[in-house]
Structure formats: C-alpha cells, structure tokens
Amino acid sequence: MPDCIHGLEIPLCDSCFPKAVPEKPKVVRASSRTPRFAAVSTSKKSINTGAQRVYHVTHINNLEGILATGALLANAAPTVDLSTELTRELRSTARVCSDGRMVSEYIPFYLTPSATLWEQLREGAGDETRWSPAARAATTSDFVFLVSTVEALGEESVIADGDAAHSLTRFATGDSLTRMLERLHDSDDVQEAEALALAPFPIESVQLVGVSNDRMRDRVRKLTSVKVVVHPPWFVSAE
To answer: What does pTM read for this prediction?
Structure first.
C-alpha cells in the first residue's frame, strides 16, 4: 500500500487521505451475532470503534527495554521515569470499575495525539506534582509514539473519560466501552480520556512507531522491525 507524504499508510493519515462518507450500514438480522466493536451509527456518521487509534508515549531511552522485554509492563522500572511518586501512588490506589484491579495494573494510551497530558509534556511538563525532573529535562523530539488500536487493547480493556486516577472519572468496559467511545468521538473530552490495556501489552500489537525527525527514525529502525514513521505534527504544540 502506498504511503502518504507523512510516511503513514493510507488508512492512518486523515490529512492526506480523508475518510470517505460511509455507506448506509447494512441491516443485521436478529439471529446474527454482533461483533464486540461493530460500527456505531450516529446522526453524523458510522464509527468503527475497534479501529480507532490509540497512542502510548514514552521516552526514546525507554524503548530499547520495552523491545527487549517484548511488551509494555505495568511494573517496569523505566530508564527515564516521566512520572512523580505521587502520580504513581494515585494510580496504584485508584480502582477501575468493580473488577478489583487498580489503574496501575494497566498500560495507558491516549485517544488522540493532541491529548492534554501529551500537550503538557510538549510544553515542558511544568506540573511538578505529576511530571518528574526527567520529564522537564526532555525535549519533544526525545519522545516516541507507540500506535495501536482499541481492538488490539484486548477484551479486558477499559476506557476512562478523564484522568484515570481522578475520583470523578468514569470507566467503561464491555458493551459500555463502545458507547463511551461514541460519546467521546469528535468531542473535546477525548483529549482528557485514557484507554487502558491490561498489562502486559505485547509489542506485536503496536502497528507503528511515530517519531519527530529522520535522525530518530534511523535510531528506532535499528531497534525494531515495527514500521517507523516521521510525523512532525504529533510533536508540535497546538498553540
């Protein structure tokens, strides 16, 4: 499949290849089994929630360890720890839904490359209660995106409509997960939301690695066979 000017495959670049207006969904007979992530029909358009992209951001110096392990782990000791002890404590004591698991048992993903927390990192990680000195010392080009899809997060994935450690955040699993994704779609709230994958999250489920420049692309290509693309817009502040 040909690439766009950003190095992405056609289905992954909404700028070069905008989505066509979907055809009217076919009527499904009552006897048919509905897949977990069926396209959701709204007044505007149909949304394939399973194919929705999710983004995990990490420091380049953490990537080699992730690749060596073969997965993103919940209890990993990263080479560059971006979070403070307070952030880790809050996530280790916040419970997800009613399944007894804590937020810290999941791998966090953003639902958009313009997520609020990523914007904070791009602007210098000024919140000292959330971000570590290492996060403030990093430059934007030091980070990489590990891109996957909601479907690839697995059957036990969770969607949080805000900071997963916040007491007012609502969680969705199973059938309600699709409904929450529908509500978040094209809403400003999507910038605050998190997608959570129960750890470990295998590197095989990562579709591509997004980097900011050619130098970083060459560095990452030496580490992995996963497709690496240069996509500067993800690394530029929205301001």
So the answer is: 0.82
Q: 25, 48 in Cβ contact below 8 A?
A: no
Q: Is 73 annotated as a binding residue?
A: yes
Start-to-end Cα distance in the chain: 34
Active site residue 204: no
CA distance 31 to 53: 30
56 known ligand binder: yes
From the candidates 122, 151, 192, 194, give the one annotated as an active-site residue. 194
Residue 69 assigned as binding residue:
no
Active site residue 91: yes
Q: What is the pLDDT of residues 15-29, one digit of tens each?
A: 555 555 444 444 434
